[in-house]
């Protein structure tokens, strides 16, 4: 028993063991990537075989609409499980939607692809694909963002060029407005939408579900603390939630309101931002961003109350249920259609 502590105390030997351990871990990771790429490429080629078979006319002559069902039965005998009709249909659709397999084969898993090919709109699918790759979303995160209509919520506040850029590049953060949503969807809190809850309950639920809340906030957010204390002239205040944004290099202060935001709430947030700019910022930090999250929002009151104030103070709504995707889709489609008209209102 005494030999092991002596061995572990040998620094050179431990360094050798660490090097070997890191090599094995890296090799396993590379192997997993190779296996995934090979699997995705194989499924793409299976889809290609099916489509080419159909295009030769054989599908109509011999199988008709029952092609995949019949093919699945044969493959089950030859290859075993994994080649059911739904799986074969996904492979076929994968080939049709992604003519160049390499665009995703070495970046996303087959499970990611199965989620993406359920999206019919090309722009919307492209957005989620880009965000998946850049943000390294797991499948669960991708499903949540799709269910919460992230693309549609962001696209609804943009013009045609903005929507196209969103689809082609994903979320690009260059200024405070780029991290703000008009409405934040907090369905993951599990709170019935028809009831009102205290700021404390909302705050506690957000902390309990911090990982999903960070996903809803978007890229770049790092949690700093809750009920962040500050003292001004011997009076004590607390900011509900404080984050730091690593891309914009600034603090993000969030205050929760269970009802409509009032003008005094805006003034208070402005004070918090002033305090952080003077007392908390490091030399290379940018000015803080303030977000007031309220259940309802009076646009006119907010416009008047923020007149002449820092443009980095925002008031957004939160909702406790998933948004109506069809309404958002009609809105986005309307923007795309309107932007194609000329000045006379003609296409």
Which features does this protein show?
55% helix, six-stranded mixed β-sheet
Q: What fraction of the residues are assigned to beta strands by DSSP?
A: 5-15%
Give the H and E element order. Answer: HHHHHHHHHHHEHHEEEHEHEH
Structural class: alpha/beta
Total beta strand runs: 6
Percent helix, as a range, is 40-55%
Note poorly predicted spans: none
> What is the number of helices?
16
Strand ordering within the main sheet? 1-6-5-4-3-2
Basic shape: globular
C-alpha Rg (nearest Å): 26 Å
Summarize model confidence as the mean pLDDT.
89
* Distance separating the two termini: 84 Å
Largest sheet: 6 strands, mixed
Write a compact overview of the structure shown.
With 347 residues, this protein is of the alpha/beta class. 55% of the residues lie in helices and 15% in strands. The protein has a six-stranded mixed β-sheet.
SSE diagram, text form:
Layout: H1 3-8, H2 11-55, H3 58-63, H4 67-79, H5 85-97, H6 102-105, H7 110-116, H8 122-135, H9 139-147, H10 150-155, H11 160-169, E1 183-185, H12 199-208, H13 210-217, E2 221-232, E3 235-245, E4 250-260, H14 263-280, E5 289-296, H15 299-305, E6 313-319, H16 325-338
Parallel strand pairs: 1-6, 4-5, 5-6
Antiparallel strand pairs: 2-3, 3-4
Helix pairs in contact: 2-5, 4-5, 8-11, 12-13
